[in-house]
Request: fold
Amino acid sequence: MATPSITTKLPSSSTALVFGSFLYRSDPRDIDVLVLYDPSVFSPADAYRGHAPFVKEIQCLVGLPLDLTLLTYDEEKSSGFIEDTGAVPIEEAIRKLMCCLRIV
Amino acid sequence: MPEFNDWGVSYSAISFVERALRGHAKVASFERTKNIEFDIELTNGKSIKMVLVDEYTLGLAAIHRALSEFSGVEYIVTCANWNGYTREAKDFGRENDLGIFVVGEFFGALHWTEPKKYCQKDKDGNPIYYYKAA
Reply:
């Protein structure tokens, strides 16, 4: 059986990753999220609004303030953001958190 | 005053910019409004509107968000010189008469007659941009 998705409000054309202290601190103050989006689906002017339900969902899920970086797929490619920050897929990051909480 | 605002700019970053503006030779006066918006009067009589953000990589979406939230903004500056901007963001600024800078560049730009066109140069005269680059 397929594992249910943790994030249901992420637009299917977008990709979400986590970077920063949430990945390695036991008591992170916030969660840094990178969302890659397709500008033919959301224009840069609409990108924040288009991902607002997803942001709310993640904030509720982790109970922390969310610091959002929105880049087009091309901007990520040219900036090397993922490689630079070691960002990991959001589901992987949140599953790790949930496993830790269960242990505690 | 809250430590942070909607854009996640720390009070220490805001204070740093205020101190730098107070001591800048080309700044006659400034007023900080809406927490991170600066209305700056230059000694040449011109006035400019700058918004300070804290984006590790300033991209197109953040620029559009700043333009929609801060009417009339001409300069979008990301604090800390380890921050940067995407090539697409800088190009958008050039095409739309906006100054897209990291904070150190911005203070250099204020020395120029046309600050938006400012570009740092290395010792050989080659342009230096704070692109986040793969």
Notes: The longest helix of chain A spans residues 90-103.
